[in-house]
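Posting this for the archive.
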Amino acid sequence: MSGDHGPMHLVGRLVSGVRRRLFVARSVIGIWIDVGAHYGERTLGFAECNPGVTVYAFEPNLRAAMKLFGRSRNYIVLPMAVAENDGSADFYLNEFEASSSLLPLAQDAPYWSEGTPLRVKDKISVATIRLDTFMNTLGIAKVDFLKVDAQGMDLAVVRSAGHRLRDIARITLEVWVTRPQYSGAASKEEAIQFLTKHGFKLEGVEPQTDGHEENLTFVRQSH
């Protein structure tokens, strides 16, 4: 799409709204970014208990994003995806909502936790933005914590920070450690290699989804 109603126009309007909210939140003492917020399982409670932190929550599934709107003044919801290109992309909505992704399912993708089948029920177009574009547009100097749960797109999200990756202090992302669930998803080894090369140290590993996935937490090494 192009013109005043295209994805980039949506990006502009969303960012303008975030700017207004940031101006009002004068007590901000920290910045979190949640990519793939879903229902805010990992970050909403923290925001509600810590009004001095602003959380920018990206969730391209509008049905899920709508449940987060207005929950907390310092929890700013952006119904869009983070990717390596600004613009738009196909988003595959899965019958098991939490497994929806910008990536198509791999051939013979494994079942989800406890045998829940993985089936795409719809494909829609969603607005996308790079992390460095987002940080630069809002004038964000430092991100204290980046949480990524982008269903196979996690390393791509991190790469989208470009040179601004040096301004992120802590990152948690997911990797699939058994048979790949999504076509084109990066491996655990690729994620560790990339972040180690860019000055991060692996601090923790948390198994999940019946051992199919792991949450990897990295911290930036002091210079």
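The longest strand covers residues 120-129. The chain has one domain: 7-220.
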